[in-house]
Amino acid sequence: MSPAPIYSEEVLIALLRKKDEEAFRYLYDHYAAALYGVVFKIVNQEEMANDLLQEVFVKIWNRIDSYDPAKGKLFTWMLNIARNTAIDMLRSKAYRQQEKNRSMENNVHLQVSDRLTSTMRVEEMGLKNVLNQLGDEYRILIEKAYFRGYTQEEIAQELQIPLGTVKTKIRSALRKLRAILQDQDTP
Prior knowledge:
Elements: H1 9-17, H2 21-43, H3 46-63, H4 74-91, H5 93-101, H6 104-125, H7 127-132, H8 136-147, H9 152-159, H10 163-185
Helix pairs in contact: 2-3, 2-4, 2-6, 3-4, 8-10, 9-10
């Protein structure tokens, strides 16, 4: 049995655009856990996160031609698809109706177990360590915006700070995150 191939990002993208199934399996094997962690952090439900992860990969497969390497890395593009898919689910009418119908007892049990599982997954991925390097001021904003699905307006209301301040701080936090991640990539 020959070892699994290792693709550079450029080669992987080219193969995905040609609808190469082996490249897609490689993509799934190497990125599913990270994307699942992001989706799960937002929806806090294992079954829903698994369903959404499949939806995310279908979107990646169908939209790979819209990926523009000049705008960022493939992982960042996929991360945005995963995040937006999860947030769209939370904002959907069907989801909100489903949440209204859940019994209170079941809801409490699921929230406690989901929080424990969520914490473990984020720690496994190392995201918690990266976010902690931001400091509380920025970490809280990133968690609310990217992992809990809050809009910038909702963050401003909850934290009782001006919307412009939220936007500026999120931009600054993303720059700091980018710098932290680039420093980790350099040997």
